[in-house]
Amino acid sequence: MNRVRIPLRKRLLVRLLSASALIAVCSVAATAWLAVTTTTRALREEQGQVLADDMDILARLSGYAATHPDWKGVQATVRALSAQTGRRIALTTADRTLLADSAPRGTSLPPRAAATVDPLRTDTFSERGAQLSGTDPRVVGPYRLTPTERTQLDALARKRQSCFARHGIETTLTRTPSGRPVLTATEGTTEPGYVPEPCADGMLNTPAPTEEKALAALGQQARGCLTRHGLDTGAPLSPALRFGGLDFRDPAGDFGYLMKGDAKAVRAAQTCLDDARRTQLDPYVAPVAELFLGGGDNGAAPRWDLSPANKTKVVGAAGLVLAVTVAVTAVVATRLVRPLRALTEAAQQPPDRHARVPVTTRDETGILAEAFNDLAERRERLEAQRKALVSDVAHELRSPLTNIRGWLEVTRDGLVEPDAELLAALHEEALVLQRVIDDLRDLAAADAGTLRLHREPVAADELLAQVTAAHRVAAEAAGVTLRTRTDGTPWLDADPVRLRQALGNLVTNAVRHTPPGGTVTLTARPEDAHVLLEVADTGTGIAAEDLPHVFERFWRAEKSRSRRTGGSGLGLPIVRHLMAAHGGTADAASTPGEGSVFTLRLPVATAPRDG
What we know:
Number of strands: 15
Largest sheet: 7 strands, mixed
Distance between the termini: 71 Å
């Protein structure tokens, strides 16, 4: 047989090498991309964390300045912030006089300040909680309520909270830096700023005496500026109390009737009010200070780029990984392909050689080689069985045909008279031929899956009685006793004709191999969901090495037996096929010199109802 040449691109070795190279390249590229992406993300996250820390530092120091008139005790706060963030923190005056520093004495300052700490002029875009006026909300100064005022306002706040609750509005009570209580409606429970009419007594929003006094001073402070802009009404200044805090952002409440939509006048009034408020609060806050942070300003988002040396390292590592991957794959692929080639060469050998392959491994390839060897062995055995079958069938048919032909020829030549005895002999030979042909037809139908069954409820005891009655005469002629024994009344859903045929074959074999005076016993008994039909004899038994072959076609334990003394060799194979068609099994057990037991296991059926 000509060997098929496989194209290079379709060879298993080439395909494995290509796949491994592609995997290696993809893995190296993915690893490099992941490393770059992860590093860049980590740097950006670190920078974001640094910016957040800087904002926290500025907010903490601005809060300190808002609640202290000077920087005398800020050193402890600076050291705590430095320990928390890991940054160097230094505070100086505008002329670089050191106020506090977390670094050792003598350490030089960064080249420029990171921010200016001024609670009266905060960065409204970065300072969390800062008002649009640019004043830190923690600067309360003369607006700080007395304990008595706080107690009175707390009582009013709880009263209004109860009123809100009666109208189905949930509120939260908080407190501003000045000590004024604030009621905030829970999100989604009501419109912002909505107050039920029974709760709108105005008492909670009325400035306290302390606030009235501070507002009067603020109005007096702003009056000069307002007069220069023609906005002085002579009325007391009363900024709105929005959300529980003093709101100085809307001067229209006091000057709206003069401004009449004049944006320039609104801006002038706001400027006068802001300047007056800063002047009023200035004695209560620490002086302006410069904030220096270790590392200085952070610029744009960091970028991570490979230098030529690093690129060379990455390329070299990728090449090394690729080379190692290809080498390992080549070794593994060679070991995989070698047994496959051996299998291919063995499969291409002539069929009559039944070639085997050596099994060198215990992996999937080794299992495949074992399966191939088993297949070759089964094929060799089937070929031998096929040859034996042809030979046995020819022998089984030749013997009766030769006898019939011989008797007919001598009768034709007038050497023998065609009397009744001759005709009976010819009829016996024809029956032998008929039995062999019927057995072969049953086996062919079973092999083709066309063996038909006509199922009906069958009582096991009646079945055994029928088989015993049919073979009692032959058993008595051989000097063998037939017995039946039934445990209960088991029923079968089966073809009674085929079951009698199977039991009849077993009884015939048992009688044939049981010497005179022996016994053949037919038993039926239930076991779990099955019914066991047993044919036991007290005959010569079957040798252990012959027992696995008793259901093979044309097999005889004693090769010297003829078709008359040993049967055709097809009875037991037919029994096994009939049991398989019924969904059952046929098994044999034997002890040489003591006898054999053939067991048919069939599914149990429900007894039919009477009537």
